[in-house]
Amino acid sequence: MSASYVHLNVENKVGYIEFYNPPHNALPAAMLATLTELIETAGSDPSIAVIVLKSGGDRTFCAGASFDELMAISNPKEGTAFFEGFANVINALRNCPKITIGRVQGKAVGGGVGLAAATDYCIATTHSEIKLSELTIGIGPFVIEPAVTRKIGLSAMSQLSLEATQFFSPQWAQEKGLFMKLCPSIESLDSEVKQLAEQLCKYNPEALQKLKEIFWKDTDDWSELLSERAAISGRLVLSDVTKTQLKKYK
Known about the structure:
Blueprint (H helix, E strand, L loop, with lengths): L4 E7 L2 E7 L8 H16 L5 E6 L11 H6 L3 H20 L4 E5 L3 E2 L1 H8 L2 E5 L4 E2 L13 H8 L1 H9 L7 H7 L4 E3 L2 H15 L4 H11 L6 H15 L3 H10 L1
Parallel strand pairs: 2-3, 3-4, 4-6, 5-7, 6-8
Antiparallel strand pairs: 1-2
Helix pairs in contact: 1-3, 3-4, 3-10, 4-5, 5-6
């Protein structure tokens, strides 16, 4: 595969939303906007009972934000708008009336950890290490923090964000509550995801919707909160520290 894409495919009442952007599934603003749109579309489609969020390729699930776009940001307004892309995807997953399953086949970094945390149930492979590296480029995991902390707790979030150069094992992520199950291969991962998703499709959709409302209790302020967090990142990405660090990755 070489071309980027985001698409929705429906099989047996399961809506599979898949994104792909080589080489490491880092997400530019346009793809984040399409992800948000497809999550909202699937959420309102009566033919879809459950949604699976996945990425293409057999290595990295998502490397977070596109560094090319981060380097191109020239003012706080542009910076805020870019980081609101991740905020919008997280809020779309939160507001979606249907249960969402995260399918993580490989490493997740930065915003990729946030996407996994924003799903209702996440299954990964034993190759799915995670890292929050934002501090290493002069910003912080501000937008995704509420979603990640909600899943793994403040203590684990503190460790994950402050040890910004370290990859944490999938076993650590499972122990802290980010991953529900670990699979030894992508094939077994796909089997687990398919089995769970299709089983959920058999349940009363109203019961699932009410259960999801309970899962996301006390998050009604996230639209405003994540927008405020995006503004923090949008300002910090313009700092000399961040500009210098980003050039090293070019």
